[in-house]
Every structure is written in C-alpha cells, then in structure tokens.
Amino acid sequence: MSGDSDCTRTSPSAGSASDSELLPDRPKYVCTLSPDLVTKAREELQEKPEWRLRDVQALRDMVCKDYPSLGTCLDDAFLLRFLRARKFDYDRALQLLVNYHTCRRTWPEVFSNLKPSAIKPVLESGFVTVLPHRDPQGRHVVCIRPDRWTPSNYPITENIRAIYLTLEKLIQSEETQVNGIVILADYKGVSLSKASHFGPFVAKKVIGILQDGFPIRIKAVNIINEPRIFKGIFAIIKPFLKEKIANRFFLHGCDLNSLHQNIPPMILPEEYGGTAGKLDISAWNELLLASEEDFLHDFSELVLPCDSSPHDLLVSGDADEKQCDDSLRGMKPQLYYCY
C-alpha cells in the first residue's frame, strides 16, 4: 500500500504504457475477484475489467496534476480501493483520496504512531473484533462493544485507532472492497458518563472518516442492547450522517430475533443468540498484531500539498471544534433526559 508519490517521476499526462516503462518497480495488479464478484462489481460499482487499468491510470493522472505533493501511494491496487468506493466516479474517488490523507493530518491523537502494538490494550479488552465468518452477502461483521472500555485506562481516541486499523486490514481484501462490511454494535451497559466522551466534535470526526475519508462500503449498522441513553447519542450522531447511511442504522434493542433478520444466527456467537460458538477475539487480535510490519511500511508520513483549498479539507480546524463544543453543551440536557 505504501510508497512515495511517483508524480515527480512521470508526467501526469503519461499513458499507461509509457508509465509502466518509466516505473517498472510498481507492483503489477492481479485481480483476485471470483467470477461472481467480477459480475457484482460490474453491476453495482460500474467496474469494467477491460477498462479497469485505464480508470486507475486516469485517477493517477488526476492526482499527479492536481495534488503532486500528496505523498500518496499510486499503485494500481491501492487506487482501486478509492475507485470502487465511489463507483468509478473519478472526481469523487479523487476527493475521497484527498480526504483520506487529510484525516490523518488533522487528527494527530489518532494517527500518530498508528500501529497494532500501540493499541494492544484495546484489542485485548475486546472493544472491537471481527467475527470469523462472513454473512451470506460475503461481508465481514465488525463487532464493537463499548462496555469493554474503561475510560480511566485510556482515552476514547485509542478505541478509534483500533477501529481504524481494523478497517485498514479488512480493506486490503478485494472481496471486502466489493461487498462492503456490516457493523454490529452492542451498547449493553453504556452509562451516561461513558457516553459523554463521545461528544459532537469526536462524532463529527469519526463519521467524517467513515463517510468521506475511508474507502470502505458500510452496508449496515446493527445496534443491539441500546439503553435509553442511546437516544441522546444518536441525536449527536444523526446531524452528521448522510441520509443514505442513516437509513442503514437498525436499532434492535434486546430483540435478538430482530437482529437475526439482518445477521443470520449461523455466523453469530452464542452471546447474540447465534450458533457459531463463544465470541473469540484472539484470532482477529493475532491477525492484526501479525500485520505490524505491514502497517509500519504502509503508514509513512503523509503530507498534503501546501496549497490545499479549505474546501478540500474534511475538518476545518478550530472553528469546527468551537462549534462542536457549543453543540455539546446543547446536547447534554438530551443525554440526561434520555438517561
């Protein structure tokens, strides 16, 4: 995934043939999609195998022309993530790529020293894991359990770091790039004091990353065991959600039958009325921790061009922080009321 920008070594107008001659060290893309997934990508993402490398080259040329100092990887496989996430719309894929780098620049608490070993306590707590089996649509299920977090042990940003690394690992798979993921969030035992850590400023940044700053397709968010306090939490989140994403939230309460309509019991652990055995976090933790060297290689220092327009930035800085702090003061009565 990593690598210095190749823009200084080739002209933005160079075609794919001359580009490959100038840059023989760039990994050659080999499609790993099954025939069924190739068909699905064509139908849902407008991905045409015969045009795939042409589309990648077009995005590469746009990066080199408009953001020559972005410092991004320009490998075929890496750029394909952004094209697939935006259904091969060049302009939207380019903006997503810029946002991806902008997020890393504007939130150092999350992105500094980002590697699996740095978030080992979060992984060991079981705050976030990935179920071992995909759902019938071929989607991984990311399980998030806020009750596993003790705020006195580490700040909420550590949880966000763990989620981000989990998504980075998942998106390496072309199957996930096409099928997307499903989120299962268990809010059992979430108290008012814990909820207060997730104010509008944090909410806006997290949702900004998931919606506009990361190349992954979130197909459903299933909330289980949500307490009354969740009404206040969702009131904080909803203003930042696009309608398309908001419609993919499903609140099940304590009704496991309702959950099973979205996620079949055969892939769920016993804790959620499933038949896949006890929830085991060790396999995913081992996989993520074993990827340490890959992440160290991938997450090199990323720098945005100094002439970036404010419209290119996902987060605009102090003004947004002040606005969100003001919003938090307005939201707190809702949290207390719901609690």
From TrEMBL:
Gene3D superfamilies: Alpha-tocopherol transfer, CRAL-TRIO lipid binding domain, N-terminal domain of phosphatidylinositol transfer protein sec14p. One of its GO terms (cellular component) is membrane. It comes from the Eukaryota. SUPFAM superfamilies: CRAL/TRIO domain, CRAL/TRIO N-terminal domain. Residues 8-19 have a biased composition (Polar residues). Residues 1-27 are annotated as: Disordered. This is Alpha tocopherol transfer protein like. It comes from Zonotrichia albicollis (White-throated sparrow). The lineage of its organism: Eukaryota, Metazoa, Chordata, Craniata, Vertebrata.
